[in-house]
Amino acid sequence: MAKKNADGPDLDDKAFVQATSEARSRYGRFNLAIVGSSGVGKSSLVNAVFGRDWAKVGRGLPVTRGVQFYSDDSLGIWDVEGFEIGSPIPPDQQLRNHLDAIAAHSGEHQISVVWYCVKANDDRLTPADIAMIRELDARGLPVILVLTKVDWIKNPITGQRGVAKDVEAFVDWLNDPVDEAGARLHIPYRRVILTSTRDRHGKGKGHGLGDLVTETLALAPERDKDAFRIAQRLNLPWKREMARPIIAAAAAAAAGAATVPLPVSDAVTLAPIQLTMMGRIAAIYDLEVKTMLSAGALAQFGVQVAGRALATSFLKLIPGAGIVVNAAVAGALTAATGESWMKICELLHTGKIDPRKLDQEWAKYAPSFMDVARKLVERRVTKR
């Protein structure tokens, strides 16, 4: 819907929402399978890495006993129970049945990476664990063996963190597994990651999660890597790397639109470019802004930060800019706005600002004269 601007032409505020929706569709969804028995800490792990409490999301697809699917736009979680003790069905066959049920769904639901979760205080993998890991590997699924609930011990002298002797012995065995007779075992997990979502006192941010995120990205199929970067909430630099090409493209498009200098009254034509940029960046930060703000608030926000309003606010600050927006100014304004919006998205993404106060927060983080001047200089240097 177009928002009537009292100072000029109508502003199409749909650009932001459409860009967010299109970006979500393009990036797709990352589907993670987490295998492990009840109480191993699967939900805590998901919450720590992805910032989702799947118990509140509710179930997704109807699957089968022992398997649940939870999803939103960027993340799908296949929660697969461990081996059911006492079952007459062998563990690998149990898992095979689960994987067959998953495979029956459409391609957008298929597993990218598996976290096979085992509590750190276990001494060995059971025969059932080994059979299930082999079955996952036989399906071509990369498996990360995740030791959960690790009790990290901090050395009071060096400050370094370590683990108890029994956990250390378990890890040594995992790195070179042998059976009771001393014969080597082939257990095809790709890597062992030690994790905790809290310290021994139930506080803090845990340990090993960064390694888990890095390894998961490395093992994800190429087509799913961006979806994983969006879904995870621990590595903000990955999101910045995705956002900056979008900012650069928008700046170039704005400069192209102002090849023939635009009177300020016509600068509203830059708004769709700028709002599209902002919508795409919002998708990268996994923000559903249209649910955080009412339609009217979102439209009003767009009027305040894009097009003519943006140009007018900066032309007053740039010496010699006059009353027209040339290519250099249009590009610099858009680039600086993109960088500021990226900062806002990070703060929204990490819960550091209230989305209901987005317009107030924008006033704090909106690009300054120096930000725009810096972008002008960067554009000149790039053209040499």
UniProtKB/TrEMBL annotation:
<protein>
    <submittedName>
        <fullName>Uncharacterized conserved protein, DUF697 family</fullName>
    </submittedName>
</protein>
<dbReference type="Pfam" id="PF01926">
    <property type="entry name" value="MMR_HSR1"/>
</dbReference>
<dbReference type="GO" id="GO:0005525">
    <property type="term" value="F:GTP binding"/>
</dbReference>
<dbReference type="InterPro" id="IPR006073">
    <property type="entry name" value="GTP-bd"/>
</dbReference>
<dbReference type="InterPro" id="IPR027417">
    <property type="entry name" value="P-loop_NTPase"/>
</dbReference>
<keyword id="KW-0812">Transmembrane</keyword>
<keyword id="KW-0472">Membrane</keyword>
<keyword id="KW-1133">Transmembrane helix</keyword>
<dbReference type="InterPro" id="IPR021147">
    <property type="entry name" value="DUF697"/>
</dbReference>
<dbReference type="Pfam" id="PF05128">
    <property type="entry name" value="DUF697"/>
</dbReference>
<dbReference type="GO" id="GO:0016020">
    <property type="term" value="C:membrane"/>
</dbReference>
<feature type="domain" description="G">
    <location>
        <begin position="32"/>
        <end position="149"/>
    </location>
</feature>
